[in-house]
């Protein structure tokens, strides 16, 4: 199912929802620009922004965005210590925007 349609369905059913979207990639990135991950307040998710390597960190940040309502821009790269910690060792870099669905 299309992650954006799912975000709409979840939102309309009363769930609190955030959408994470790949804005930019450099080098060997696991997913293309425009890839989406939909997350609800309980950490349920659908879609992918990184083929699995940084999803855990994106989900954690998305839950914070749901709680605060403040969008955030995440940047993961191979030289970034966070990238190694969360598993982005492909040599690429991705920029992910996370926003709450209102």
UniProtKB/TrEMBL annotation:
Keyword vocabulary terms for this entry: Plasmid
Domain XdhC- CoxI: 12-77
UniProt-listed Pfam families: XdhC_CoxI (PF02625)
Signal peptide boundaries: none
Highest taxon of the lineage: Bacteria
Protein name (database record): XdhC family protein
Species, as recorded: Rhizobium ruizarguesonis
């Amino acid at each position: 199912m299309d992650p954006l349609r799912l975000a709409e369905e979840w939102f309309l059913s009363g769930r609190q929802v955030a959408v994470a979207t790949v804005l930019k990639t450099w080098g060997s990135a696991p997913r293309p620009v425009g890839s989406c991950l939909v997350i609800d307040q309980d950490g349920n998710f659908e879609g992918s922004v990184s083929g699995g390597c940084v999803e855990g960190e994106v989900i954690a940040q998305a839950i914070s965005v749901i709680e605060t309502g403040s969008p955030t821009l995440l940047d993961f790269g191979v030289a970034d210590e966070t990238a190694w910690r969360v598993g982005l060792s492909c040599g690429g870099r991705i920029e992910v925007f996370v926003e709450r669905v209102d």
